[in-house]
Design goal:
The complex is a heterodimer of chains A (about 450) and B (about 230). Chain A has 22 helices and ten strands. A six-stranded parallel beta sheet of chain A has the order 1-10-7-4-2-3, sandwiched between helices. Chain A is globular, with a radius of gyration of 26 Å. The relative contact order of chain A is 0.13. The N and C termini of chain B lie far apart (about 65 Å). The longest helix of chain B has 18 residues. Classes of the chains: A alpha/beta (about 450), B alpha/beta (about 230). β9 of chain A pairs antiparallel with β9 of chain B, so a sheet runs across the interface.
Chain lengths: ~450, ~230
């Protein structure tokens, strides 16, 4: 779990990221490239908007009857021979997973990408108990070797240059010094991980979709790492947030058409694996995790955030995310969606995240399940301000309100401001109080206000 | 109270008023131009779109006739002349689910064939080419549906260095909605949609084919030559 107990200061962290302007530009462009791929893929589907409607309605319906669907899912999954476990919070989730591993004497575990296990801090929990966990998604493996968490929910190592990955692989996997070719580096990781797949005692995966009617679940990957893990190890543990359910198998048609197109611009991920029963001789466990989700469900203003299918589109499109980097959010899920999920966990700790936005609405415009992300960001701002009023902002807006309320006072202040901007020394105008002017030039003050110009023009020359 | 009951109670208490479940999604009918076309040209168009989508996903798509009992040898000989070991889970004209042929090379001098189901996982990792038959293909994204019974064993399509998938072009459907209408996902313990060879772009967004799974995927559209 990131960040510990201290409050996240998004603006300060973003400023640190922006200190390297070349890297910031590169990060921005990399993600914009992914966003453009998404646009092309979406435009190629004529019924795209209808698919988004359907996805949003299916999710809304499922959330409105989630308890029934969870029971249906549990019964069907149990009927399929899947062992279903329930975890109220991260701690219980970790204990359950460790308990299963301990009972089987499993020491070597391969794990595919799962934001839920990241959220629960599973890796450090298991490592502290002598279980060796290897993340097998290439991006996550890179981050594991680097000893830092993923910075993006779909593209974990998007913030790293290939030179940095080359150095890391040279040190940890023995690749040639100075080698940076992505094909060469990927091959090195492939060879290293193949032996781990073949010798693992257990495999852990996340879940993209749980199917209530059939009691099965779907895992989507491009690399094939989740499947290599679970089809070789004697034990498969799938960890699933309770909001991942959908009612019917055929609803998968809607979601699989949206997921990869929204995330990376692919028409579908390479592998969409449907699990209903363990392979002969193996065990299949499924851990259903609440960890704050039922609480978020109870918040009328924010419950729609639970529709999220973790495609990453809102991160890729967000002008703030692209130029501040995933770590500036200090959260497992960064970007716009993280900024509406995390305050529900800990309003004090994540109080700056709803402000890490221009409220431009691009996130809501690309969201495949039509979450009104930017509206929720605005609503969280109101909650944050109610809980802890910002005295400086209150003072500033109070003063502005008084100026705007009296036309004569407003005109007088305008004249004063135009004079001041022209005459006062720069050091004073761009003093510490002028936050707006830190990275920007104030506009050239005009001779006349619009009102003065209008009255003069009406009088004629 | 168990965590199960506590979670269900919390979810019940938090849930909003029920909203309706929309009917299963059906894409709008094709535009009149396409609808008026005869079914033969519509089928040909669907095959063309499947081919394009599969190629966009990184697969190689070829067509082959199924006449005679050596079409697979022909295809493998042309596509994979250097492959030494292959395992197949398909029924060819001459043999029931494969592996029947003695190991050590066919008469034609092709690769040694091994029984897919009999292999231990680590042996499977050494097999260069795995041959499977897909149940259906999806035109909109180039994916093929492979249920467990067509895999030999679950790990096969992921451990193989190269993968060759046979598909009857008559079994290509329009989109994922059509696919799920035809596939019963829980009929078997496992099944997957697969589109292209394994890939990653986790290093600077550079596309690398052959991440952990197969380095190549060849789809053979098998047409009966009457």
């Amino acid at each position: 779990v990131l960040g510990g107990g201290s409050a996240v200061d998004h603006a300060a962290a973003a400023a640190a990221f922006n200190a390297d302007e070349t890297r910031t530009d590169w990060h921005d462009e990399s993600l914009w490239h992914v966003r453009r791929n998404r646009d092309r893929a979406a435009a190629a589907v004529p019924e795209w908007e209808a698919l988004r409607d359907a996805a949003s309605e299916i999710k809304a319906h499922t959330l409105s009857r989630l308890a029934e669907y969870l029971e249906q899912f549990e019964a069907a999954a149990t009927g399929n021979g899947i062992r279903v476990h329930w975890a109220a919070d991260a701690g219980e989730h970790n204990r359950i997973v460790h308990g299963i591993l301990e009972q089987r004497g499993a020491e070597r575990v391969v794990k595919s990408k799962s934001m839920l296990t990241e959220e629960c801090g599973l890796n450090p929990y298991l490592e502290a108990r002598g279980v060796h966990v290897v993340d097998t998604d290439l991006g996550e493996r890179i981050m594991q070797l680097a000893g830092t968490p993923p910075s993006h929910i779909v593209l974990p190592a998007i913030h790293l240059r290939k030179e940095e990955i080359g150095d890391l692989f040279h040190e940890r996997l023995g690749t040639d010094a100075g080698a940076t070719d992505p094909g060469y580096l990927t091959e090195a990781a492939r060879r290293d991980l193949r032996t781990r797949f073949l010798t693992a005692d257990a495999a852990i995966t996340g879940v993209n979709f749980g199917i209530a009617e059939t009691g099965g679940f779907v895992v989507c990957t491009n690399e094939g790492n989740a499947d290599l893990g679970v089809h070789l190890a004697p034990v498969h543990i799938a960890c699933m947030g309770i909001e991942k359910l959908i009612p019917r198998a055929e609803d998968l048609g809607v979601f699989l058409r949206l997921l990869a197109r929204s995330g990376t611009g692919q028409a579908i991920t390479v592998y969409s694996s449907h699990f209903h029963r363990a392979r002969p001789g193996a065990e299949l466990h499924l851990v259903l995790v609440d960890n704050g989700r039922s609480e978020q469900l109870g918040r009328e203003d924010f419950r729609d955030s639970l529709k999220c299918i973790r495609c990453g589109a809102c991160l890729n499109t967000c002008p703030v995310y692209r130029r501040s980097g995933g770590y500036s959010y200090g959260a497992t899920v960064a970007g716009p969606i993280g900024s509406i999920l995390m305050p529900g966990r800990d309003l004090e700790k994540y109080s700056t995240l709803p402000f890490a936005s221009t409220l431009c609405g691009s996130c809501s415009a690309v969201c495949p399940v039509r979450i009104d992300i930017h509206e929720q960001l605005y609503r969280w701002r109101q909650r944050v301000t109610e809980a802890a009023p910002d005295r400086k902002k209150a003072l500033a807006t109070g003063l502005a309100g008084r100026a705007f309320a009296r036309p004569r006072r407003y005109r007088r202040l305008g004249r004063l401001a135009r004079w001041a901007l022209r005459r006062l020394p720069r050091a004073l105008v761009y003093g510490r109080w002028n936050v707006w002017g830190r990275r920007r030039e104030l506009p050239e003050p005009p001779e006349l206000s619009f009102g003065e110009w209008y009255r003069r023009s009406r009088r004629g020359p | 109270m168990s965590s199960r009951d506590a979670i269900l109670a919390a979810v019940r208490a938090a849930a909003p008023e029920p909203t309706p479940l929309p009917p299963p999604f059906r894409p709008p009918a094709p535009d009149p131009g396409t609808a008026n076309a005869d079914s033969g040209s519509r089928d040909a168009d669907r095959v063309r779109r499947f081919r394009e989508a599969a190629e966009a996903a990184g697969a190689t798509v070829i067509a082959s006739g199924s006449r005679g009992d050596d079409w697979l040898d022909r295809v493998v000989g042309e596509r994979f002349p250097d492959v030494k070991t292959m395992a197949s889970a398909i029924a060819t004209a001459e043999s029931a689910p494969d592996g029947a042929r003695p190991a050590g090379g066919s008469e034609a001098g092709g690769p040694a064939r091994v029984d897919l189901q009999a292999l231990a996982a680590h042996e499977l990792a050494d097999v260069e080419l795995v041959v499977l038959a897909a149940e259906l293909g999806v035109a909109e994204n180039g994916a093929v549906w492979l249920p467990e019974s067509r895999l030999g064993q679950r790990a096969a399509p992921f451990l193989a260095q190269h993968l060759l998938v046979v598909l009857d072009p008559d079994r290509i459907v329009e989109d994922m909605h059509d696919a799920y209408a035809r596939v019963q996902v829980d009929a078997e313990g496992f099944g997957l949609f697969m589109a292209g060879p394994s890939k990653t772009a986790d290093i600077e967004q550079s596309l690398v084919i052959g991440a952990h799974g197969p380095r190549s995927l060849t789809i053979v559209l098998l047409v009966g030559d009457g």
